Amino acid sequence: MGEKMLMKGNEVIGEAAIRSGCRYFFGYPITPQTELSEYLAKKMPKVGGLCLQAESEVSAINMVLGCTASGERAFTSSSSPGISLKSEGVSYIIGSDLPCVIVNVQRGGPGLGGIQPAQSDYLQATKALGHGDQHFIVLAPAYVQEIATLMSEAFDLADIYRTPVMLLADGALGQMMEPVDFEAKKQRELPEKTWASCGHGNKRAHNIVNSLYIDPEVLEKTVLARYERYKQIEENEVQYDEYMTEDAEICIVAYGITARIAKTAVKAAREKGIKAGLFRPITLWPYPKKELATLADKVSKFLVVEMNMGQMVDDVKVATDCRRPVEFFGRTGGVIPTPNEILAKIEEMNGGAN
Amino acid sequence: MIEKLKKRITIICGHYGAGKTNVAVNLAKAAADSGRKVAIADLDVVNPYFRTADNAAELREKGIRCIVPEFANTNVDIPSIPAEFLAVFDGDAYSVVDVGGDDGAIALSVYKDRFEHSGYDMLYVYNACRPLTATVEEAIESLRAIEDMSRLKFTGIVNNTNLGGETTAATVEKGSAVCKALSAATGVPYLGSAVFKGIKGLAEQPALLMDNATKQLF
To answer: Is B170 within 8 Å of chain A by CB?
Structure first.
C-alpha cells in the first residue's frame, strides 16, 4: 500500500491519469470539474506531459482523436454541457477504433442547467453519446478511492478493446475530499498498438486512422467486428457491488454518489427491521444484467435511486424481465437526495412507517 | 489558538483543500463560545460547493454574523463578494475571513489597505496529506505565492494535517513536523495544530479542537 493522500475527486482523476502513463490532457474548463485541469496544468509539465486548454470542447476531443491515433494515451474531461459538445468527436473516435478516456463530472441539465451535482447524463452515456451503431464502456465510481482505481482501469480497458471509456462521475464526487491510495490497482496485460500512426520507418505498411468507409459492405463488416468486441466486453468486464442483498426484500439499485447515500438509508432501514439491500452497478455499460436477473429471484421489489428523473429504471426492468415491481426515487436539477428521503421511500414500499 | 490571535481580524488562507473552512468555522465558534461578538465572512471565490455557507444556520444560531455570498450554493457560477463584507472593517466584531485556496487569495488583495488599517492576523492552514504541497519546499512555495497574490503577510502557521475520517495522531504529527520546518524557513510563527475531536494519543496539546464542518451527504 502506498502512502495515503487526502484529495478531491477531480484531482484524483488527474493524478490517476498520470500514474496510468497518460501524458496528454486536452480540456476546456467548466464547473464542477475545473480543478482537474488546474491540477494537470501544474503537474503535467513536471512529468514531461502536456495539459492543453483548447479553445473549445469540440477542439479538445478532436485533439484527443489525433493524439490517441499516434498510440499515446490521451484523455479529456468536461461536465454535462461540454460532453454534449464532444459527442461528434466521440463518435469519430469510436468509428476509428481508437482508445481514449472521457471524463464527465455531471452537473444539472438540460441546457446550461446548473453547477450542482446530477446524474442526468445516464442515458446519454450508456445509450448513445454520438451517432452511429456504437457503445463505449461507462464506469461509475462512488468513492474518491474508486476514481483512482477506475481511471487506471479506464485506460487499460480502452487499450485492450480499442474503445473510448467514460468515467461518469458527478459534481459531488468531483468536489469532495477523501483519503486515496494510488497503489491499489490491478495490473492488466495490454496489447501492442500495431494500428498506431506513429511513423512506420519504412519497416511496415503505413497505418490509416479513419472513420469514413466508401463501401457500405466494408462499413457493415467493420461495425459487426466492433460488436463482436462489445460482446466480449459484456461477457468479461461487468463490475458491480452488493450490500446486504443476501436476504433483502427491497433492493435499491443506485450508482455513483447516490449509492452511498442509499447505503446510509439501507442501514437505517435495517435498524427499523426492514430488509433492505443495495445493488451498485460500477459498469453502467456493460450493464450487470445477469446479476440483477439473479437478484430478481430473491428480492420482492426494486427501488432505483438516482439524481435524475429515472433514467436507469428501464435498464433494471429489462434486466429483470419486469418480474418484480421497479419503483423510483430521485432528485434532479442539482438537488442531492438525503438518506432520510430515501428511507421514507423504502418505508412507503414496505407498507408504511414502522 | 484564540489567545494568540491579538488582532480583531483573522484571515484564513492556504492551499486548496487544506481545511480552511473547517478551521475558520471552528475558530469562529470557539470565539463565540468565549463570549465574544463574532462575524465570519466567506471570501471564497473558487469553490462551487462545500463552503462556509453550509454552516450558516448553525453559526447564526450561536449569534455569529455570517457574511456569505448571496448566491453561495446556487447555480450562479460567478464569484461575488457581498457589499456586506465591508462590515469586517467597519464593525467591531471579531471577524474570521475564510479565503479560497491558492489563487483564491487574490480576493484579499483588493482590501489590502483596509486590512492593514484595521490590523489582521493571517494564518497559513497546512495539510501535509495534500498533493502538491506535501514537502517543506512545496509548502514554502505555496505560502509565498499566496502572500504575493493577496499582498498581505502571514502571521501564523496552523497544522491541519488530516486524512478525513482516517486521521490518527501520527497523521497530525507528520504535519506538525513539516509546519515547524516551514516556520523555521519562513520566519512565520507556528501556532500549533487544529485537530478533529476524538483523535487519541496526541503528543502535543491541540491549539484548536474542531467539529467536522464539512457538509455530510451520507
So the answer is: no
pLDDT in tens, chain B (218 residues): 888 999 999 999 999 899 999 999 999 999 999 999 999 999 988 887 888 888 999 999 999 999 988 777 777 766 788 899 999 999 999 999 999 888 889 999 999 999 999 999 999 999 999 999 999 999 999 999 999 999 999 999 999 999 999 999 999 999 999 999 999 999 999 999 999 999 999 999 999 999 998 888 99
Q: Where are the alpha helices (DSSP H) in chain B?
A: 20-33, 56-61, 87-90, 106-109, 112-118, 136-150, 169-186
Q: Classify residue B137: in a domain, yes or no.
A: yes
A354 class by beta-carbon count within 10 Å (0-12 exposed, 13-18 middle, 19+ buried): exposed
Q: Does any CB of chain A come closer than 8 Å to the CB of residue B162?
A: yes
> Which helix H or strand E contains A302, and what residues bound it?
strand A301-306
Interatomic CA distance for residues B196 and B125, integer angstroms: 14
Is residue B117 a part of any domain in this protein? yes
Cα dist from A215 to A44, A205, A212, A307, B153, whole Å: 42, 22, 9, 43, 69
Fold of A5-236: Rossmann fold (3.40.50)
Chain centre distance of CA B97: 7
What do you get for the CA distance between the two ends of chain B, in Å? Answer: 31
The fold for domain A241-349 equals: Rossmann fold (3.40.50)
A-B Cβ pairs (cutoff 8 Å, strict):
73
A71 CB neighbour count, 10 Å cutoff: 19
- Between CA A58 and CA A93 the distance in angstroms is 13
List of residues 6+ apart from B125 with CB closer than 8 A: B12, B13, B14, B18, B19, B20, B23, B158, B160, B194
Preferred mutation among A4, A6, A278 to probe B, highest tally of B CBs within 10 A: A6
How many helices (H) does chain A have, and how many strands (E)? 12, 14
Contact assessment for residue B27 and residue B52, using Cβ atoms and an 8 Å cutoff? no
pLDDT surpassing 80 at residue A91: yes
Using CA atoms of A311, A100, A109, B103 in order, give the dihedral in degrees to the nearest 10.
Answer: 140
**Residue A229, Cβ density class (10 Å: 0-12 exposed, 13-18 middle, ≥19 buried):** middle
Query: Quick one: pLDDT at residue A353?
Result: 58
Residue B152 sits in a domain of what CATH number?
3.40.50.300
CB atoms A6 and B48 under 8 Å: no
ipTM for the assembly: 0.92
